[in-house]
Amino acid sequence: MKRRSFLMGASALALGQLASGCGNRQSTALNVGLLQNSIPVQLLAEFRRTLESPVRLKFDPQAQLKDIYQNLRVWKRQSENPESSPGFSLPLISRKPPAIANLVTLGDYWLESAIGEQLIQPLELSTLPGWQQLPPRWQGIVRRNRQGQLDESGLIWGAPYRWGTVVIAYRRDKFEELGWTPTDWSDLWRPELRDRISLLDSPREVIGLTLKKLGFSYDTANLSQVPNLKTELLDLHKQVKLYSSDHYLEPLVLGDTWLAVGWSTDILSLRGRDRQIQAVIPRSGTSLWADVWVQPAVQKTAAESPEPETSQSLTQQWIDFCWRQQSAIDISLLSHAASPILVTMNPATLPDSLRQSEILLPEPSILEDSEFLYPLPQEAIEQYLELWQEIRTMQFV
C-alpha cells in the first residue's frame, strides 16, 4: 500500500549535517533510518544533550515508507546470502542499500507483512516510562503474534511515536459558491460533486469510508453482510475524477477537483502553503495511521558493532526520549502529526496551536469513533479486492 510520500528537502540536508558533525571516533553508535520529516531536527540535538557519554548518532531520512521496507528486505536477503548483490540494477546507477540500522520507521499498516516475512524483531519496551504513558489503543496496535495478527498478550513489535488521520480536504472558493461545506463522509455522495472528487487508490480506505457512512466498521470482515454496499460504492465511483495515493492533491490545487480524501500530514502541509485549501475530519469517524519505530531482524555482528548491549540500550533511550512530554509536543508542532502521548496530556498544558488544531487533535468523540486499519483474514482481503476491482472497471456515461 502506497502511503504518505514526502519530497526530500532541506531537513534531509540538516539531518545529514548533524550526523556528520557528531564525530566518528566513538565506538558506540545509534543508526536510525527514519521517514523524512517525521522527526524535527531540533530533537536530535536535544537527545544528544541527554546522553551521559559521547555517542556517534546517524539519522538517515528516507523519502517513503516503501523505501524503508525495501531496505528491511535487502538486509534480510543479504544476511541469508552474504554473496548476493542488492539487486539487478544497471552498473553506475544501482542504489547501494544503507548500513543496517538499529531502528527504522515503519507504518502500522506494514507491521503484519514485516512480522510475517521476519524482517523485524520484538522490542523490550514494557518497562520504559514512556510505554506506561502510551494510551492502550496505541499499545494494542503493536502487540502482535508471530504471524502479525493482533494479540493482547503478544510481543511488542513497534513503538508508535506519531499518528494521524485520513481527512477531507476541499477548496474554500468552490464551496463558498455551493453555499455549504463538507462535514462527514455522506457529503461525498452529493450530486453537485459529480466528477469533482479525488480519492486514494486504496480498497481499505475507499470501501472503509463507505462502510463508515453506512454505520459499519472500517475493519468489517464479511462484506456480504453489509446491505447496499455495492450500490453505495457505485454511486461514489460516479463522483470520482481521480484515484491516486501519490498525486491526489495536484488536481485539488489546480481546481480540477473540489474535494480530496487523503492523509492528514500531506493535507496539513499543503494547507500551510495554499489558503484556499481547508480540511475537516468526518464527524462519524475516520481511519487512523501511526508511524512506529521497529528493530530490523538483522543486526550488526559483534565485529561490526563492538558494544551491542550498549547499542540496544541506546535504542531504548531514543524511543523513550520520543515519548517524553516535551518531545511529544515538539514532534506534534513540527511534523504535521501528533504524538500519541498528547492524547493523555491535560489540554490546558498544550500550546494553543496544538489545542486549537482539530486536524492534529480531533474532538474526543470523533477520535473515539475512528479506527486503525487492523489486519483482516485472507478471505476478507479477497472480498475487498474482488469488490474493488468490480467497482473500478465500471464505466458511466
From TrEMBL:
<dbReference type="GO" id="GO:0015846">
    <property type="term" value="P:polyamine transport"/>
</dbReference>
<dbReference type="GO" id="GO:0042597">
    <property type="term" value="C:periplasmic space"/>
</dbReference>
<keyword id="KW-0813">Transport</keyword>
<protein>
    <recommendedName>
        <fullName>Bacterial extracellular solute-binding protein</fullName>
    </recommendedName>
</protein>
<keyword id="KW-0574">Periplasm</keyword>
<dbReference type="InterPro" id="IPR001188">
    <property type="entry name" value="Sperm_putr-bd"/>
</dbReference>
<dbReference type="GO" id="GO:0019808">
    <property type="term" value="F:polyamine binding"/>
</dbReference>
<keyword id="KW-0732">Signal</keyword>
<dbReference type="Pfam" id="PF13343">
    <property type="entry name" value="SBP_bac_6"/>
</dbReference>
